[in-house]
Specification:
homodimer, 12 helices
């Protein structure tokens, strides 16, 4: 029931995902059963291809996330997180209230022991053809260097496990290549990551190389900077599209192809979609969630942070 | 003598600028007189069209900026700043060592009384056709809100005086439109700018609207963020160009058309060019320097900060 075009876009996207999802995977739809069945019927898709969990409430964009998560206990987001927390599903994705999705991530599935602050990340396209993982993209601002250093480890595990990159190149987003460049936060983060034996740290990456793919597979930054980078990319994508400059690089920048924003560092796969998600965007989001589940990312992260 | 292709590119660019510079303006060339005259001859340009001040030394990119500025007292940058400080010239531009240019700005012409920290800025193209002024773009990181609030005033005066925008819209680069969004720095800056009577403050601008032109003419941000925005734009420009997506918007992103980086908040017009400046870039830089001189920007800034 999440997103500006729910439930139509969500159900249509789920139907579209059937063509690519693994034979052993099953999509569970949480929402108004009647509406779900109506969309499936209009799509000519047998309802048996999905599991449907009927919910009766909807967390609206205007609702206070934490309050709504608790009081609307029969909303698709709250019920979904209940299933996720007790293992009824393996991963949860929604284009609904980002705030409520974060409340569910933090209070229902909870941060992994040892992770100071979970993060939201984004895959960005690069000119090399392989995406890079940028984190944090807006959950945490004024990050302590210790938090950013953990993002280097989390991102490296994601890139290795989910994207299949051996020895991913981890870098700190900075305003110079030299070690001594940057603000207090990035200088300290650089020091910590340099001493981190579990990752392949390549030093600083400048803004000019976020999208070149030449320097890093995993780019660590404060949520303020990451959010600005992401929104700036979206803005330039829109300008470029309006000007008619279509090509594979800019197409990959389209949020519909990105697959949502993974919440990393919590005890189960959670992916948050754009509020205005189209069916195509929902399809990408479901498939990227399946990818994280299949890769066993959560177990790998737990292992890395257990001490 | 500054820049990777000096003095050829500098002299050629100066010759190119003659076609657009005002009848009452005069370009003064600081550098190796013999080399300057040789390039002018090869360009078929009479040397009388310029004033030439012969210098014998060159501050190299590898030199320590502050030391070189002092010890190489007959370098084009040091001599040029001498002329600027005592009014022998009205504005100074160079594609040479950025560090030495900043040393000259801070110690030869000095900050304007009342300006806490001078800033470097950049004009960015927007989809609306009018450029926006972004500041700071890398001189000051970990900026105090008081410093950023002054950048709002400085940027507003620049936009009004030099760009001819009446009541320029001033905004804080932030990760949300709402007043309560952001990090500690941007929230405090927002408060200060809201209370600033000398500017037309429009609130926050998100990364998605830096290049749309829809929200702001002057965008205030910490130098870390501004530098990242600028370098990211350069990187995307290069990717876009390699993919063949040429159009007026992206052409305007080309540093050759930008006209260099004005140093704002010091007692004379100073413009710093890209180290790899081509003749075309030098031409733009000279013309943008002339524009700042003609607009009487320094006097307007002095007036604003005198109490």
């Amino acid at each position: 029931m999440g997103g500006d075009f729910a439930p139509e876009a969500a159900v249509k996207g789920a139907v579209m995902a059937l063509d690519a999802i693994g034979a052993e995977s099953r999509i569970v739809l949480f929402g108004d059963e009647q509406q779900i069945r109506a969309v499936l019927a209009s799509e000519g898709c047998p309802a048996e291809r999905f599991d449907i969990v009927a919910t009766t409430e909807v967390i609206e964009m205007g609702d206070h996330p934490a309050k709504a998560f608790q009081t609307k206990s029969n909303s698709s987001i709250t019920v979904g997180f209940g299933y996720l927390a007790r293992g009824g599903i393996d991963g949860f994705a929604s284009a609904g209230s980002t705030g409520a999705m974060m409340v569910g991530s933090m209070y229902a599935v909870k941060p992994i022991d040892g992770v100071i602050r979970p993060t939201i990340s984004s895959l960005v396209p690069t000119a090399s053809g392989h995406p890079a993982l940028l984190l944090d993209v807006g959950l945490n601002v004024d990050c302590k260097p210790e938090v950013l250093a953990q993002y280097g480890v989390i991102g490296s595990i994601y890139a290795e496990t989910v994207l299949g990159i051996a020895k991913p190149r981890v870098a700190v987003l900075n305003i110079g290549e030299e070690e001594t460049k940057g603000n207090a936060q990035t200088k300290a983060t650089h020091e910590l990551l340099k001493a981190e034996p579990r990752i392949h740290f390549v030093g600083n990456v400048e803004g000019s190389h976020i999208f070149s793919g030449k320097v890093a597979d995993v780019i660590v930054c404060d949520g303020f900077v990451g959010n600005t980078v992401l929104k700036m990319a979206e803005g330039l994508y829109r300008i470029n599209k309006a000007l008619g400059g279509g090509n594979a690089f800019w197409d990959a920048m389209n949020y519909e192809n990105v697959g949502g924003t993974p919440v990393l560092g919590v005890n189960a796969p959670v992916v948050i979609g754009h509020g205005c998600s189209s069916p195509k965007a929902i399809r990408s989001m479901i498939l990227s969630t399946e990818q994280v589940v299949k890769a066993g990312l959560t177990a790998k992260l737990r292992q890395a942070f257990q001490n």
